[in-house]
Amino acid sequence: YAGYDSTNLYFCFTTPIYPEGWLRANGRFSDTFAHPLYGILYDDLMEIEIRPVEDLSSGYNRGMFRLDVNALCTVADGYWSKSRDMDDRIVARWDSGATIRSKADVKRWVVEYAIPLKSLRYGDYDAKDEKGNPLVALPPSDGTTYRVWFACRVGDKFSAFDGHAWDTTKTKLILDSQSPAFQLNDLGPITDGQVDVQMTVKNHSTRPETVRIGFQVESATGTVYSSYQSSEIPNGLVELRPGELRKLRIKQDNLPLTPDNNALWFDVRSLGTPEKMLFRTRLTQFQRTHNNAETARLDQVTADLQRLNRVLQEHFVMRGTYPDAKTWTNSIRLPDFTFRDPWGEPYVYSNTTANSYTLFSTGAKREQERRAEVEQTPR
Q: pTM for this structure?
């Protein structure tokens, strides 16, 4: 979530925690990026990058402000400029003066930021534009555009708005006091090829507003879904009365995704003359996943085999591990199993040598073979 007033920029990150109940947070000292024991870069973290200009070339040369926060609410804020820091390090000499709160339970982590706008007049941004006006206007006028980037790492998963090289920032954040406010509440099971996007929009203005919502899904072969063709919001157009709050939902099943190189795009435009862009970003790049029910069954097989392993280790010595099978050696025969896998078939074992047995799930092997065949089929 993002917002602003005459004094601050406001952001809120929220993310599920996986695995549940566990966050890495060794960083206890502010402005410590890369210390081998306490560097925040090695923690689970939330990251914001800001370049308070629209022009990509100017933003690249003038540099970026960066704020990293871990679950302990340890903050590392720094500034990097091409003209000042040729060794590509973030230098912790910028003090944002931001008010930041971090809270986590076993399932979700939330971080809130209030970043003073005046702190962005720093370094190469504490300068004049070609007309002699401050490069960073305070307060910002309607239509002011910043380049921003949001990223989050929890466990072994790293997610970010927009993919780009670290020294450029593409996402546009347009500041407009009259624009409607949007929240993307849920993307749905998009990686399974299903659009089920839920949004909330509010018109804070005292005048009617018409906006055009663009939500696109691209595969490696081209666009496979566009909200402009949706039945729920034809042409992507939404008309809002003054002060109106509305919840929107768009749905589409069976998108022809490719195994990888799929992407989500989202933009909001305010109609008028001229039309104004309010927000635009590539939300994420993602891979297609498989059917959720089948994936859950494979996860259950793994749990079952681990459970059987604990029982059998009392009598057998484990010799090797495989994706869907465990092998033990002993001079006695394995007992008969009646325990069934999620496909309703019994877990079975076979003699590979006189003293070696392999326990496996035929259902899991069949599903893995089916997946391999799907991946090799041209789309």
A: 0.65
